[in-house]
């Protein structure tokens, strides 16, 4: 690959990243989240428009960006949520979604519309928590009771599909996927042991504490090493590594303890400042626009199914604890999907089980959910609080 071409593409990708941030800053009332501008910018500079470059030109950086999406999502998720009502209801809602997805996709498979049964069914149960986090945090929607429910439903909708994909659809087989899960468990134990070993007052603890800031940035460098190592253990970036990144984020938050907010700010700077935008711009560049144009009804079908299958159960499961407006917000958050869909379609295409038009339509539908649903969630939050009693 020509290094000049790669640098030209990277320059265009970073330019799109900067322009998107500037536009959002200049137009604070713009009802479109920044990720949408990144995707649209990627489509514009991609091979189907200006043809500045291809997603393959920045593949490595994009892979690290996808890893950061899941690492930050796992870092944000508090495992204690799953012992609360929010976590239990989130698990129930995802279970209902999974049952609906299996039934609906089974009918589509019987009708010849779908060939890759399991990838498509799992795709309808995903939630893009990593994509939604910057939007929800910026609008202050992660605090309070509603924030707990949004985090729980997003975390379940991201973790469980990735777990199922790693076990049933891993590119290196089920045994390798289980070994990958075991490796993450070992990582958790090792980090726990290290935490006990690095006691306050020890020399190593003083070195780590003194090196957290300024030029050393020890904890940040260690986190980046952890993420890159998870990606580097495979020849290609696949769901096993994604799962590892998500779980590593959860483990890491527990390990750093009181320093979690400080490290989180640094991860935000590195992830959202560079790697995550590269991933979303590259995703836009990789979108197969001609396939979507040839079969637009498939995109409409998958979009409707995402809203009904993933979002619909939230309207019922959260009755009695959330008002109708809040349930609508939770349903829209639940139905927003993209990063896992990208990885799912990649697996389906590599294995030859997924039709190219379905892969493009699934990712395209995910892009539409990111275009519309977060903006609707924010718009609903701007309305006056309802004074009516919570629906029973």
Please describe what this structure looks like.
- The protein has a single domain, classed as Na+/H+ antiporter like fold (Up-down Bundle).
- It has 392 residues and is mainly alpha-helical.
- It has 17 helices and no strands.
- Mean pLDDT is 80; it is low at 383-392.
Which structural traits does this protein have?
Na+/H+ antiporter like fold; Transporter, CPA2 family; Na+/solute_symporter_sf; disordered C terminus; membrane; globular; mainly alpha; transmembrane helix; antiport
The overall number of domains is 1
According to CATH, the fold-level topology is Na+/H+ antiporter like fold
* Beta strands, count: 0
Number of helices: 17
Radius of gyration: 21 Å
The ordered string of helix (H) and strand (E) elements is HHHHHHHHHHHHHHHHH
- Proportion of residues in helical segments: over 70%
Low-confidence stretches: 383-392
| End-to-end Cα distance | 61 Å
Mean pLDDT: 80
Based on Cα principal axes, name the global outline. Answer: globular
CATH class value: Mainly Alpha
**CATH architecture label name:** Up-down Bundle
Tell me the β content.
under 5%
The major β-sheet equals:
none
Helix/strand-derived category reads mainly alpha
Keywords: Antiport, Ion transport, Membrane, Transmembrane, Transmembrane helix, Transport
Protein name: Transporter, CPA2 family
Subcellular location: Membrane
Membrane topology: Multi-pass membrane protein
């Amino acid at each position: 690959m020509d290094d000049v071409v790669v640098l030209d593409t990277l320059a265009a990708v970073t330019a799109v990243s900067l322009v998107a941030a500037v536009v959002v800053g200049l137009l604070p009332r713009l009802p479109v989240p920044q990720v949408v501008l990144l995707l649209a910018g990627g489509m514009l500079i991609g091979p189907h428009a200006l043809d500045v470059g291809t997603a393959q030109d920045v593949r490595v950086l994009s892979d690290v960006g996808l890893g950061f999406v899941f690492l930050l999502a796992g870092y944000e998720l508090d495992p204690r949520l799953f012992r609360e009502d929010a976590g239990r209801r989130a698990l129930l809602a995802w279970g209902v979604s999974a049952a609906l997805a299996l039934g609906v996709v089974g009918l589509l498979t019987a009708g010849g519309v779908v060939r890759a049964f399991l990838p498509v069914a799992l795709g309808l149960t995903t939630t893009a928590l990593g994509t939604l986090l910057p939007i929800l945090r910026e609008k202050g929607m992660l605090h309070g009771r509603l924030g707990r429910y949004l985090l729980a439903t997003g975390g379940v909708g991201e973790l469980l599909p990735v777990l199922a994909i790693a076990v049933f659809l891993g590119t290196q087989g089920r045994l390798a996927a289980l070994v990958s899960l075991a490796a993450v468990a070992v990582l958790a134990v090792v980090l726990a042991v290290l935490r006990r070993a690095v006691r306050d007052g020890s020399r190593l603890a003083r070195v780590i504490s003194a090196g957290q800031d300024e030029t050393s940035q020890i904890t940040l460098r260690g986190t980046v090493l952890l993420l890159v190592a998870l990606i580097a253990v495979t020849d290609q970036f696949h769901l096993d590594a994604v799962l590892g990144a998500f779980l590593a984020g959860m483990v890491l938050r527990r390990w750093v303890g009181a320093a979690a907010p400080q490290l989180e700010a640094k991860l935000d700077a590195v992830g959202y400042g560079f790697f995550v935008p590269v991933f979303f711009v590259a995703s836009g560049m990789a979108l197969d626009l001609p396939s979507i144009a040839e079969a637009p009804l498939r995109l409409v079908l998958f979009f409707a199914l995402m809203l009904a299958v993933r979002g619909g159960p939230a309207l019922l499961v959260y009755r009695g604890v959330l008002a109708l407006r809040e349930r609508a917000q939770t349903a829209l958050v639940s139905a927003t999907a993209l990063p896992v869909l990208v990885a799912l379609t990649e697996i389906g295409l590599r294995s030859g089980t997924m039709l190219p038009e379905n892969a493009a339509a699934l990712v395209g539908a995910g892009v539409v959910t990111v275009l519309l649903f977060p903006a609707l969630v924010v718009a609903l939050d701007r309305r006056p609080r309802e004074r009516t009693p919570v629906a029973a």
